[in-house]
Write a structure and sequence with these properties.
The complex is a heterodimer of chains A (about 240) and B (about 270). Chain A has about 240 residues and is α/β, with parallel strands linked by helices. Chain A has 8 helices and 11 strands. Chain B has 2 domains: about 35 residues; about 220 residues, MetI-like (MetI-like fold, Orthogonal Bundle). The chains are: A alpha/beta (about 240), B mainly alpha (about 270).
Chain lengths: ~240, ~270
């Protein structure tokens, strides 16, 4: 179980969020641009420090303002898929995925088997030896996901996880992601603009506005509630369905 | 009517621009051709075995390489710090690093003499132990480092600044601490820019004249680098002077070609 209660002043507003995400559960954050969704992921990953609060996964405290605990990002064991993927362009797909394991000084034979397993999981086997700067958007996204998953993370953070894929691949990726999170039994937080992502990926959905989670509930609960932003979302979704 | 005048205007602009570019090219190329035509391959090869030419060539290549290596070693971390970290006085440091770019080399040489000469602030200290720096090969290297350092640091800093910071963040989130990240992610991604900067620095060090002659003197085999030898031999043996010049012209061409090629090489994703 991931337990979060953090506070940090950003440029335009104060980010203040408190929520829990259970193991095997996917929590989807939706909200307008600049609502603080990505900043929240950065706070959780340790790439940005809160000013106060507490972040813990199970028994392990990653941040605790009161006790001065602040585990550095490189020691948090969090899988993070960035919005622009940040795939290392000078390395092959294999070496990108192996990167986290090499830093952990995992044995070469184990690296090989774990990387190959994850390449297969994301249908990247044939691209193993290809340099990452030769990949398409969707391939880069899958590589980023494989790279984040291979380190067996204690928490998975996804910034726009399926945006670069075509419709069919998106559908497949959503269900695979959801299965993976359940199987690995880790909490997962996904940020998205797409309401379809939110509905099919999220066990729970949180709506962010100016640094706060103003609503938090299951997709069904959200549908029933009357948030203006959500109404917009649903309307857009209907239009989306209508036009396709 | 308007179209007609527009067309006319464009024509004049094209002719004017073309003329200007041609003039500029002639201005740059004529002296170089003049230099090349003053020597024959036989004369060139004969001069190569002249000890003055030979000594200057070897000394120049050794000192300029050494200067460039030292600049890379010291300049890379400084460029990285200035590109990625804010600290009080960063702008001042940046300005001071650029100072040798605009300082006349003779002034730089005199200043180095005041600092590292026998009476100088630092040189005086070393002289107590019987070590003199001025008028030695070491002085040549110091002078070259002083004048060519900014070329590398500027280019390196620009390369670091252009690099997307999410690569570093991704590496951190994957468990990589700063040093491994620097060597496995950042350095390979800015390699081309750093090499281009190093080549520019090397070229500047190779052509160094003013600061060297002021601070290191003009002793064959010890401090007489190619530019100094060109100046010295010009008064007697013009062939040696031209041979050395042709070598420097060739090196300059290679440098420009390498830098152009190298700067295009950095991968972007």
């Amino acid at each position: 179980m991931l337990e979060v209660a953090v506070r940090r002043n950003l440029r335009d507003y104060t980010l203040e969020a408190a929520f829990n995400v259970g193991s095997g559960e996917t929590f989807v954050l939706i909200g307008e641009n600049g609502a603080g969704k990505s900043s929240l992921l950065f706070l959780l990953s340790g790439l940005l420090s809160p000013e106060s609060g507490r972040i813990s996964i199970g028994e392990r405290a990653l941040y605790d303002g009161a006790y001065g605990i602040d585990v550095p990002a490189e020691a948090r064991d969090i899988g993070f898929v960035f919005q622009n993927y940040a795939i290392f362009p000078h390395l092959t797909v294999f070496e990108n995925v192996a990167f986290g394991l090499r830093r952990r000084k995992v044995q070469a034979s184990e690296i090989r088997s774990r990387v190959e397993e994850h390449l297969a999981l994301l249908s990247l086997e044939n691209l193993s030896a290809v340099r990452a700067d030769q990949l398409s958007g969707g391939e880069r996204q899958r590589t980023a996901l494989a790279r984040a998953l291979v380190i067996a993370p204690a928490l998975l953070l996804l910034d726009e996880p399926v945006s670069a894929l075509d419709a069919v691949a998106q559908e497949r990726m959503r269900s695979e992601l959801r299965n993976y999170v359940r199987r690995a039994d880790i909490p997962c937080i996904a940020v998205t603009h797409s309401f379809r992502d939110a509905l099919s990926l999220g066990d729970r959905i949180g709506v962010m506005e100016r640094g706060r989670i103003v609503q938090n509930g299951t997709p069904d609960e959200m549908r029933r509630s009357g948030n203006e932003f959500l109404h917009q979302f649903f309307c857009e979704c209907r239009q989306e369905h209508g036009s396709h | 009517m308007r179209g007609y005048f527009q067309g006319r205007k464009n024509l004049y602009l094209t002719i004017g621009g073309g003329l200007l570019i041609t003039l500029l090219l002639v201005f740059i190329i004529t002296p170089i051709i003049g230099l090349l035509f003053r020597t024959t391959p036989e004369q060139f090869l004969a001069s190569l075995s002249d000890p003055v030419v030979w000594n200057a060539l070897v000394l120049s290549l050794i000192t300029a390489s050494l200067s460039t290596l030292i600049i890379i070693g010291v300049g890379t971390p400084v460029a990285w710090i200035n590109a990625r970290h804010r600290y009080p006085g960063r702008e001042l440091v940046d300005t001071l690093i650029d100072l040798p770019l605009v300082l006349p080399p003779t002034v730089a040489g005199l200043a180095l003499l005041m600092a590292f000469g026998r009476m100088g602030l630092i040189g005086g200290f070393f002289y107590e132990f019987g070590i003199s720096i001025a008028f030695t090969t070491l002085a040549v290297v110091i002078a070259q480092i002083f004048v060519s350092l900014p070329f590398y640091i500027r280019q390196a800093r620009a390369s670091f600044e252009q690099l997307d910071t999410t690569y570093e963040l991704a590496a951190r989130s994957l468990g990589s601490t700063s040093l491994p990240t620097f060597f496995t992610v950042i350095l390979p991604l800015v390699k081309s820019g750093l090499i281009a900067g190093a080549i520019m620095s090397f070229a500047r060090a190779l052509g160094e004249f003013g600061a060297t002659i002021m601070f290191a003197g003009n002793f064959q085999g010890r401090t007489q680098t190619m530019p100094l030898a060109i100046y010295t031999t010009m008064q007697g043996d013009l062939n040696a002077s031209i041979t050395l010049s042709v070598i420097l012209v060739l090196i300059s061409f290679v440098v420009i070609a390498l830098v152009k090629y190298r700067l295009r090489g950095d991968v972007r994703c």
